[in-house]
Amino acid sequence: ALNGMPGPYIKWFLQEMGNEGLYTLLAGHSDHTAFCQCILGFSAGPGSEPLLFIGQTPGTIVPPKADGGWGWDAIFVPDGAEHPFSTFDLEAKNRISHRAHALRQFVDYL
């Protein structure tokens, strides 16, 4: 929706703007799609080419209504869900989170 912003700077965006401010940035856009991404890197040691395992969870940014969770969990609804991440219990979130996707790829590699 914002051409890749805030990307890796999400922590600082949220510290300065909060979820309300991040949602407000989308006010002039019809596209509210977004994705969470985790990149897990692994190297077998010196001289070994590092491997990257990329996990993504696509979704949509919604108006802040729920509290809780981490970061932007209160305004991020994963595709296929009806409610923001902040309403998920830890087990449910870990099944579909971007971190879980990257970690599963890494475990499969091992």
Describe this structure in words.
With about 110 residues, the protein is an alpha+beta fold. It has a single domain (about 5-110), classed as Maf protein. The chain has helices at about 10-25, 90-95, 100-110, and strands at about 35-40, 50-60, 75-80. The chain has a three-stranded antiparallel β-sheet with strand order 1-2-3. InterPro entries: ITPase-like_fam (IPR029001), RdgB/HAM1 (IPR002637).
Give the CATH level 1 class. Alpha Beta
Q: pLDDT average, as an integer?
A: 88
> Which descriptor suits the 3D outline?
globular
Strand order of the largest sheet: 1-2-3
Regions with little confidence, pLDDT below 50 for 5+ residues: none
Q: What's the count of strands?
A: 3
Q: Element order, helices and strands?
A: HEEEHH
Q: Could you say what the CATH topology is called? A: Maf protein
What's the total helix number? 3
Percent of residues in beta strands: 15-25%
Secondary-structure class:
alpha+beta
**Rg, alpha carbons:** 15 Å
Structural domains: how many: 1
Assign the CATH architecture. Alpha-Beta Complex
Biggest sheet details: 3 strands, antiparallel
